[in-house]
Design brief:
Elements: H1 2-18, H2 31-41, H3 48-51, E1 53-56, H4 63-69, H5 71-80, H6 84-99, E2 107-113, E3 118-124, E4 130-137, H7 144-156, H8 170-186, E5 193-202, E6 207-215, E7 221-227, H9 236-246, H10 254-270, E8 277-282, E9 292-300, E10 306-312, H11 324-329, H12 339-351, E11 355-364, E12 369-378, E13 382-391, E14 395-407, E15 412-421, E16 424-433, E17 441-454, E18 457-472, E19 476-490, E20 504-517, E21 527-540, E22 547-560, E23 563-568, H13 569-589, H14 593-613, E24 631-633, H15 639-666, H16 669-674
Parallel strand pairs: 1-3, 4-6, 7-9, 10-12, 22-24
Antiparallel strand pairs: 2-3, 5-6, 8-9, 11-12, 13-14, 14-15, 15-16, 16-17, 17-18, 18-19, 19-20, 20-21, 21-22, 22-23
Helix pairs in contact: 1-8, 5-6, 7-8, 9-10, 13-14, 13-15
């Protein structure tokens, strides 16, 4: 009987919501939140009154579970003493805890005893019910599993993801009906009605089944979107947004209509119209075929603004010089206002590590300029770190580092680090000015030394490098560098000694770099690619030949679900360039191309493991001292594969030519006719 009353109450709550009356009270704190509160309260020793709260009749939960559930009322009892309202609240939250765990008919009564010093809670748990099947009447559009996910979402979020059977929680089902209604509205059913929620207890299975009755109503989609006045900027700027709603018509909803309005205003702002206003109106009186709703746009672009003054309001004890941020943002002054340019520069400033955040306020001035009022919150500039780990080649690693990102108040970076491994120590000192002479040029100086023991010899390497790079636009970065290296070998055990080369040598290197970066993020890329090219000339200081060196690095990133696929050019270019040859071989031998594609991919992956992934120890420590090879140009990671396939292709081509010629001699129809 109590279950039937509960079902009737659910229908009344839904009916009240549909009629526009006040909705039921908001949800009470979740058990997880109550547990968090309990953790904070455990630091306070419970007084005698709070410890005199007794539970009777609890068979399914321990006293600790119940005390965690009523942590807030118990804290109030500790602070204020026991009273009738607090006793009533405590009993209510105990009942709420049970109902959220599948006991819909729980009954909790309380009694204050010992002259107001004790609170006794008497619990009648009642039967436990799992949530059974959920049926939907009137749903003609969506799979039941999709709607069920919305119905059970609140309960599922409260229990373990590995728990198969969910408890029956009446309030969660009521919340689920609101979520189902919201889903329908977002999918183009603005007039959908959730008529009622029926619950059906099954005492045999100890479950409660539910039925949701739905009246979907008509479904609407976005129709043609037209401007009622001259937009004053090229329509091509709006085309991508409009096409996303109309080409494959998107379901109409008020939320998506508001997004359209905001996006149109943002597009105007990217064209410099800072004060643009746009309104969008649906016309349900002219709904087209398939429920497509025409949308009218009324826009007032306003004047074109430019970036103007830059005002920085530094906080007390700021470490950066007052002109630091004005110099960084000065490149915007005089440009047509574009929020994307401002956001890009803001992100670049935060990524320097100098700021926790930058508060930027855009102020429109009467002269059609935008004043940027910047309030920086500086981060800690100095950092000391200690680290340890293990590498397969170096063994155990221990090290420490110190970084100061704000030398002289100009954001210049000083770094010193030292590392010790089983093979030996190394250290490095660097100085970097990301805005060399207040330009976009990045200047860097590095000095380092390392002393390592490897197979067959030990070496000491002292080096220094100077580089100057500059970024153009968003994707391109060019640079020049110069490097000096002095290497000396000792404890050489390689036999024969002729393989070693000189045991002491110095090399000077100068080169250029070019990077093209189309990744969506340099720190955590999800898609895109990066290409890095380097060309250098090295000149040994001994009587030896100089040599050229060219290198390239290409990486491609693509998200696959929650994972990330990334691969590089060192084996990808080989695979891509040789694939046409493999297809040609397949055609000549009559093999399916899919077989060749799979086989060649497998070969390339094995080669990648053999050549790239598997560590390789060189027997030639002085490999940079290449007096035997004046020019080194390596285009392929696996030249032996390339040579093998090219040889096979030439052999088959010759075989085909010779075979064709032999066949034409043996089967000449004229000679056969004369014979």
């Amino acid at each position: 009987m109590k279950c039937l009353v509960a079902a009737t109450l659910v229908e009344m709550m839904i009916a009240a919501s549909a009629c526009g009356q006040a909705p039921p009270p908001g949800p009470t704190p979740k058990p997880a939140e109550q547990a968090a509160t309990t953790v904070q309260m455990q630091a306070t020793p419970p007084p005698e009154t709070a410890s005199r709260v007794h539970f009777f009749g609890n068979r399914s939960f321990t006293e600790k579970d119940l005390r965690d559930a009523v942590a807030d009322p118990l804290q109030q009892i500790r602070n204020e003493g026991l009273s009738l309202p607090l006793a009533d609240d405590t009993a209510y939250y105990v009942g709420l805890f049970y109902r959220r765990h599948g006991y819909p008919v729980v009954d909790v009564k309380y009694k204050i005893s010992d002259n107001g010093q004790s609170l006794d809670l008497y619990i009648t748990e009642g039967p436990y019910y799992d949530l059974g099947d959920i049926y939907f009447k009137g749903d003609n559009t969506f799979p039941p599993d999709v709607l069920k996910d919305y119905m059970i979402g609140t309960t599922r979020g409260r229990v373990s993801q590995f728990q198969k059977n969910l408890p029956y929680v009446e309030a969660d089902l009521v919340t689920g009906t609101s979520l189902v209604q919201g889903y329908y509205i977002s999918q183009g059913f603005p007039k959908v009605q959730i008529v009622k929620l029926e619950t059906h207890p099954d005492e045999t299975r100890h479950v409660v089944d539910a039925t949701v009755v739905i009246i979907e109503g008509p479904r609407y989609f976005f129709g043609p979107i037209t401007f009622k006045n001259d937009p004053e900027i090229p329509m091509a700027l709006f085309q991508a947004k409009l096409s996303s709603l109309t080409d494959r018509p998107a379901p109409y909803s008020e939320a998506e209509l508001n997004n359209l309005q905001r996006d149109l205003v943002f597009i105007y702002k990217t064209a410099g119209h800072f004060a643009a206003v746009a309104t969008v109106e649906p016309d349900f009186a002219r709904v087209g075929e398939g429920g497509r709703v025409p949308i009218s746009v009324h826009s007032t672009p306003g004047p074109i603004y430019r970036f103007g003054k830059i005002i920085v309001e530094q906080r007390p004890q700021a470490r950066l010089k007052p002109d630091f941020l004005p110099n960084r943002f000065a490149e915007l002054q005089g440009q047509i206002y574009n929020p994307k340019s401002l956001q890009t520069l803001n992100t670049a400033m935060v990524q320097t590590g100098l700021f926790d955040t930058l508060g930027i306020q855009e102020i429109a001035e009467p002269d059609d300029t935008i004043t940027l009022s910047i309030t920086p919150w500086e981060a800690k500039a100095k950092e000391f770190s200690v680290f340890g780990g293990y590498r397969t080649f170096d063994g155990l690693i221990f090290g420490a580092g110190y970084t100061n990102r704000n030398i002289l108040g100009e954001g210049q970076i000083f770094n010193v680090s030292a590392e010790y491994t089983v093979r030996g120590p190394d250290g490095k000192i660097s100085y970097e000015d990301p805005w060399f002479l207040n330009t976009k040029n990045r200047f860097r100086v590095v000095l380092g030394i390392e002393d390592k023991m490897v197979q067959g010899y030990s070496y000491a390497n002292t080096y220094g490098q100077i580089s100057l790079t500059r970024k153009y636009g968003t994707h391109f970065e060019s640079g020049v560098f110069a490097e000096f290296k002095s290497v000396s070998l000792s404890d050489v055990t390689i036999d024969p000694a002729s393989l070693v080369g000189p045991t002491t040598y110095q090399i000077g290197t100068a080169g250029i770099t070019q990077t093209i970066d189309y990744r969506d993020s340099p720190l955590n890329p999800h898609h895109g690619w990066i290409l890095a090219l380097t060309g250098s000339i090295s000149e040994p200081f001994q009587n030896a030949s100089s040599y050229l060196q060219f290198s390239e690095r290409f990486s491609y990133y693509q998200s696959i679900g929650k994972g990330l696929l990334a691969f590089g050019v060192r084996w990808f270019l080989d695979w891509l360039l040789v694939l046409p040859i493999a297809f040609s071989l397949a055609r000549r031998r009559g093999l399916p191309r899919l077989w060749i594609l799979g086989f060649w991919t497998l070969v390339a992956l094995v080669a990648a493991w053999l050549t790239v992934i598997r560590p390789v120890t060189s027997l030639y420590p002085a490999s940079e001292y290449m007096d035997w090879l004046p020019v080194s140009l390596r285009l392929f990671a696996f030249p032996w594969l390339f040579v093998l396939l090219v040889t096979l292709w030439i052999a088959l081509w010759l075989e085909e030519k010779i075979g064709t010629r032999s066949s034409s001699i043996q089967l000449n129809p004229h000679e056969t006719k004369h014979n």
